[in-house]
Amino acid sequence: MRRSAFAYVIIFIGIAASTPYLTLYYQSLGISLGFIGALTAFTSATALVTAPIWGAIHDRFPRSLILLPLAGMLAVSGAFGLTRVGASPLLAVFAAMMAMGMSGIGPAMDVRVLELAGSDRTRYGFVRAFGSASFMICAPLVGFLNEARGYGALFLVMIPAVLIGSMVATTIPGRSNVLRAPSILRAPGRVLTSRPIGLFLFGSLICWTAVYSQSGFFSLYLKSLGAPADQVGWAWSIAALLEIPTMLAFPMLARRFGIERLILLGAGIIVAREIANATFTIPAILLACSVVQGAGYGLLLIGSITFVSHHAPRGTSATAQGLLSGAAVNMAAIIGSGLGGQLAGLISIRGLYTVAVALGILGVAIMAFAVLRAPRDEAESDIPAIPA
Predict the structure, then answer these.
(1) If the chain, 388 residues long, is cut into consecutive pieces of 10 residues, what is the mean pLDDT of each piece?
(2) Can you name the CATH fold of 2-171+188-376?
(3) Among 22, 69, 226, 383, which is least packed, fewest CB within 10 Å?
């Protein structure tokens, strides 16, 4: 597990450099709010398509040592291109390349760690907590760097971190106790037609659409309220304060309350944070509310990954995580950032946040129906593997 934790630390340095500041980098190039939303939606659409494809390839070749470095190289090539082309049409091409590469890293790392965890897959939370700690420490530091050198400085951190992290991730033991998927093309369909996962992914899509319609514009919102760049970084960092202990405590909490209840508790906390964003306009108060979000995010994220790993059909574990990433991150970002950007231009960012609250409540209701009625299936790692 130590090698796994180290890989998450490095990868999340890159994520801490890019996630809070990429929209601000686009804005520094002179791009409008509506176009930023459209660009974010486009890159999310790219990742939506490629994440399940990466997952299916990993299921087909579970012991491959080249897939993670290949994804990392693609991501950093796109990131380097973003530093060179300015506000030209090529910006969208390189942004898509970066999204395509990043979509192949996270789900593959997750499924490897889940197999290492064995029958108690809630132990995944221990490893993932190191990534959150890395994010919490590095996000404000990158904010200071951006304040001093401009938002393009984020790539000085992001590019080497993703490149090195994707290589370190290959040291996580390969997947051996799995059934090799018979077909790359059929794996996504097998996952989506699984009754508990299909409905859960739909609820996740709505819930995370509400999240990304807020978080996608949160840096811009804070800036419009007068917050400096380093305070923007602290806002993202503070969110990890409770996220880390929540992830560390997840196995114990899951044994006491059940994974399903923790998922719903996490989603409910996130909705409460969304209500706070729509209510308050003082940056200091919004920073304080970020602390609460960390607990909700940790419970929902680890719970979702664990729930999907338990209910994925045999031979499709990486595909299932890729589809979860597609529903929870990419499709949600398409809707939240793409349509959200247009809506924010019409009714303001704060008005968009009010709409997001209603979406969040709807998403929680659908997820509740999915997880509370799901059978308690065996995890794939609990079943003897069929040799590849």
Answers:
(1) 83 90 89 81 84 80 83 95 90 94 85 71 76 84 87 93 90 59 57 74 88 79 77 71 84 88 92 87 81 85 85 72 72 77 80 87 90 60 35
(2) Growth Hormone; Chain: A; (1.20.1250)
(3) 226
381 in Cβ contact with 121 (< 8 Å)? yes
Structure tokens at 110: 């997750």
d(CA 387, CA 364) in angstroms, rounded, equals: 39
* CA–CA dist 320, 309 (Å, integer): 7
Q: So where are the chain's domains?
A: 2-171+188-376
- C-beta pairs of 9-12 under 8 Å, 24+ apart in sequence: 9/130, 9/131, 9/133, 9/134, 10/134, 10/161, 10/164, 10/165, 10/168, 11/105, 11/106, 11/109, 11/131, 11/161, 11/162, 11/165, 11/166, 11/169, 12/130, 12/131, 12/132, 12/134, 12/135, 12/138
The whole-angstrom separation of Cα 30 and Cα 36 is: 10
